[in-house]
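Postdoc handover notes: sequence design on the structure in folder B. Input tokens:
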């Protein structure tokens, strides 16, 4: 099926262009349009085919490219959907290659949106590594004022694979995935790029087992020699390091390495290890697992009100006890990557040289990884929606990995669906509006749940009865109602040491509800 209203069925003969024999994606200059068409929908388009705003912010990195036309692609299926963008599986009609198209509208763009789109393009053009997603071109659809980012197509993401109940990754398989992840991060960091949203749903995998880091919508350039302040409102809550939760604005590669440590433990445990529902609860869970920060860390963190964030009772680090079933080299690497002090996490290079990768069993070859049908966040959502419909119709649902019925408590063990494609861009715009609007009641009222948001937490939902406990045997996750009050009391004691003014609107909203 051709791309809906984006593509015109017929074209005048004088608009037809011969196709180059080498089918190069960069060799198709768009013809100049009359002035009245260039300003259609208020978007200025230069004679070379690029919108003016894109040339102004990213002209240097696209100067050797020519925009492709939307009618040179055939849309096959929607594989991702977000507030601000959609992602399609498509076929390049010139080369016959299957690609992924990330569609972004650029009419009436706000300055913040332009900055995020341009920065993603700038970042992707700087990177070139087997374990980093490749930007293959840009497509302009001037009829609908849309910009498409053309990526290589990947059949899976790590969250989708982990959602299969029958899947239990072996140690060599975990090492294979982690080796590729850390290799990609090493390349990013060596080229001055922080990803700032590493999580399973942003790790794409093809049928050959190659893992590629994707979704650089929150990425930023950095220079360790000339540090500059950056926002702490990045990284999905479950994978966000403590320094960002504490509001640090000067940070580096440690934020990505913390997320990598969470993923390593998640692959070995079979489920996310730190599932907080708010920023305060997330910080509480981190301190309970990784221990309270030292006095030295509080002093050098340079937070204006660091003492306000200290728990009443210091916590002892218990990673070894919690993950006692992990292989010893894995525990050692998790200990390093989940260090409270980001300076103690090392680098991606040092992580790759640890015993976890140098000792047997070695990482398997990517080609030896198990094969699965296409598995992405949208596939998870569609399967879950179908299961809910079957339950509503009284049809007995079946698990993804066999004939066993999927119980509600077992669903917790599975990977949570990844955030919507490129939703972080719109989330940041929403956050900008909220912080500038004095009448806004709460950030929490505006944003999705923590696992669907690249930046913020979410208030306690009344539908969630009781806290989720973490079973160190990694065989199940249950709601322990008999410990509900004790857990809540502990959380209240932790929360009470914070001043409302230091927590922000999200916690103010929770205090008011209570």
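Designed sequence:
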């Amino acid at each position: 099926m051709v791309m809906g209203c984006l593509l015109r069925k017929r074209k005048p003969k004088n608009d037809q262009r011969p196709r180059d024999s080498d089918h190069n994606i960069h060799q198709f200059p768009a013809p100049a349009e009359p002035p009245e068409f260039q300003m259609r929908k208020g978007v200025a388009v230069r004679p070379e085919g690029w919108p003016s705003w894109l040339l102004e912010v990213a002209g240097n990195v696209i100067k050797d490219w020519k925009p492709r036309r939307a009618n040179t692609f055939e849309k096959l299926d929607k594989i991702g959907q977000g507030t601000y963008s959609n992602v399609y599986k498509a076929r390049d009609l010139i080369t016959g290659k299957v690609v992924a198209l990330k569609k972004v509208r650029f009419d009436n763009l706000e300055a913040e949106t332009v900055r995020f789109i341009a920065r993603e393009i700038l970042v992707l053009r700087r990177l070139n590594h087997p374990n980093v997603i490749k930007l293959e071109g840009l497509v302009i659809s001037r009829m609908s004022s849309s910009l498409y980012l053309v990526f290589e197509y990947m059949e899976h993401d790590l969250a989708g694979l982990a959602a299969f109940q029958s899947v239990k990754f072996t140690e060599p398989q975990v090492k294979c995935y982690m080796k590729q992840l850390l290799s990609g991060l090493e390349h990013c960091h060596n080229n001055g790029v922080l990803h700032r949203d590493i999580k399973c749903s942003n790790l794409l995998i093809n049928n050959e087992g190659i893992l590629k880091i994707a979704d650089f919508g929150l990425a930023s350039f950095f220079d360790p020699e000339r540090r500059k302040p950056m926002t702490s409102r990045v990284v999905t809550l479950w994978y966000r390091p403590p320094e960002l939760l504490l509001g640090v604005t000067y940070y580096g590669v440690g934020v990505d390495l913390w997320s990598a440590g969470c993923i390593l433990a998640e692959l070995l445990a079979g489920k996310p290890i730190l599932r907080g529902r708010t920023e305060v609860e997330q910080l509480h869970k981190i301190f309970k697992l990784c221990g309270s920060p030292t006095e030295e860390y509080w002093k050098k963190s340079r937070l204006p009100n660091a003492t306000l964030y200290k728990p009443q009772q210091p916590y002892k680090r218990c990673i070894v006890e919690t993950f006692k079933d992990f292989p010893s080299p894995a525990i050692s690497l998790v200990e390093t990557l989940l260090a409270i002090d980001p300076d103690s996490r090392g680098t991606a290079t040092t992580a790759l040289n640890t015993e976890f990768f140098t000792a047997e069993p070695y990482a398997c070859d990517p080609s030896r990884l198990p094969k699965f049908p296409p598995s992405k966040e949208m596939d998870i959502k569609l399967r879950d929606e179908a299961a809910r419909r079957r339950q509503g119709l009284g049809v007995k649902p079946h698990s993804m990995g066999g004939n066993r019925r999927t119980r509600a408590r077992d669903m917790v063990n599975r990977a949570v669906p990844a955030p919507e494609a490129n939703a972080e861009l719109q989330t940041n715009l929403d956050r900008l509006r909220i912080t500038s609007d004095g009448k806004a009641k709460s950030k929490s009222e505006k944003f999705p749940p923590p696992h669907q948001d690249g930046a913020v937490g979410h208030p306690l939902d009344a539908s969630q009865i009781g806290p989720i406990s973490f079973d160190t045997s990694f065989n199940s996750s249950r709601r322990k109602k008999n410990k509900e009050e004790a857990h809540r009391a502990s959380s209240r004691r932790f929360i009470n040491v914070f001043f409302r003014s230091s927590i922000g609107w999200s916690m103010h909203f929770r205090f008011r509800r209570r």
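Context for whoever picks this up: Residues 156-421+447-514 form a domain with the Transferase(Phosphotransferase); domain 1 fold (CATH 1.10.510.10). Don't rerun without checking with the PI first.
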